[in-house]
């Protein structure tokens, strides 16, 4: 067990009841500071719903979520984001009509107030952070392009870059390699590995090759509940996991 | 690529400079009658840019902008009405609007405080500055309240259009209904002139034209600077993807309310300038057709461009005035405008300003073959991906 200081994300008995159907059902999990945790589960297991609950998109009906020592249960999305939770959606979402650079500026402002944003440009600190993110995501050549013109892979990397710019301490990634070519997937794995350590990352992924590339600890979800937790090897040999996956073709 | 962006900046700067110079030079070329007309069209230009701010930059289609324009106009007109000689008739030495006297009960006291039940509302408007201040403050306050209600509830898209539309029609009914205070259908006419430091702004004087033109230019430049701030950038991000903005930590509603309110304040200010130039305020300002016209001007000029929307409004109205000499042409003109609007919405979502931009792209591509950036509209994500195999 990680020490109290080392817990980035503490989920305790989290439940959401959609009119009798519990998509997430008494789910508990602790993700340590700087850890990269992979969340596995068959279709409909409740992975996306769990991320909705953590990030404030959906309100839970029971249980709690803590970001370090801060209780963020059922707060408004923008408050949870300001507290330090960044989220990437299954469908990439960036600001299509803004340039790549403007996307990163919006993400990296670190100042939510309308009135305090009534000035021009970004300060030196912000510029330095922006350059770091451009370096990390290798988007230097497309900075002046409208983000809507980027390729699928570039769009995903931009969104990852925005989470880093935002200064998110805990980052939630929902299937970051969905729809990517093998080359793009490879680059994404590298990118996530470089983000590891500076950020605590919780990632949902179906691509097992990708999971092997990045995973340290894996949590398996089934019917909204915690099924197993452990290393890749432990999970692969776990009987309960094998049984749960029988219906959906097993872990490949 | 940075050079490209810098070039485009310079061209935009040039366009603003030319437009403003043209507006300021106008009195050299036209007579007092047309100057007064153009002053009104400059006011419409402000309305076009206010729509571009909310629709183009914030993605909020406000079909009730006439509400804010109308409030601005009535607030200013109330003060100017009390300044009019028509308010000092029938032996009264304290100003009372003539229509109140005409409709007064036989034994009602001849005093603004209590000649009828609502007349006391007019009392503070005896000070001209009060009416002028309220012309901006009242629309600002109303927009803040309406905007807070709409955007906190995350109402968006067509629902905002319907709600704003319903509000302006409702207000129009209320104003017509409050006949004793507002003179109902007839509106406020026979107004006095704005007087500043003893100087009277006769609507047909060049000075009045410059008052309106200066107001328009200041609003145009201030709004252009406003959208260039980080807040302006964040606003555009909430238009592109409100959820993404939320998960970056922005209270999207706060940004929407702020810019919706700024847009309303501009419309209120425009209403005030209109009254100064046109000498009347009327419930027709809150007609559905007027609010929709503003949207058409902005769409044709280019809702993504403040200057484009402003020029669109001025251009359409100037042409309309030129053809309205004959009845037949006037009807035909409405058809043409309607048709133009449909064409623009379907094929030219960025309006005239977008057309100019695309032409500049073409010219640039011809001047610098190979080196030029491909035009934004023709390049697809797939094409971009195909260009970089193995990346
Ligand atoms: N708002 C809602 N109301 C009712 N049911 C919902 C709602 N949101 C999700 N569900 C249901 O909850 C279950 C879990 O869905 P969820 O999207 O979290 O699964 P997932 O693990 O992300 O699946 P996938 O791998 O397919 O993305 C599904 O059966 C889904 O239909
Ligand atoms: Mg999912």
UniProtKB/TrEMBL annotation, chain A:
SUPFAM superfamilies for this protein: P-loop containing nucleoside triphosphate hydrolases
SMART domains in the record: AAA (SM00382)
GO cellular component, as recorded: plasma membrane
MF terms in GO: ATP binding; ATP hydrolysis activity
Chain ranges of the ABC transporter domain: 9-248
InterPro entries assigned to the protein according to its UniProt record, in alphabetical order: AAA+_ATPase, ABC_AA/LPS_Transport, ABC_transporter-like_ATP-bd, ABC_transptr_urea_ATP-bd_UrtD, BCA_ABC_TP_C, P-loop_NTPase
Keyword terms of this UniProt record: ATP-binding, Nucleotide-binding, Transport
PANTHER family assigned to the protein according to its UniProt record, in alphabetical order: CONSERVED COMPONENT OF ABC TRANSPORTER FOR NATURAL AMINO ACIDS-RELATED, HIGH-AFFINITY BRANCHED-CHAIN AMINO ACID TRANSPORT ATP-BINDING PROTEIN
Protein name according to UniProt: Urea ABC transporter ATP-binding protein UrtD
Taxonomic source organism: Marivibrio halodurans
Gene expressing this chain: urtD
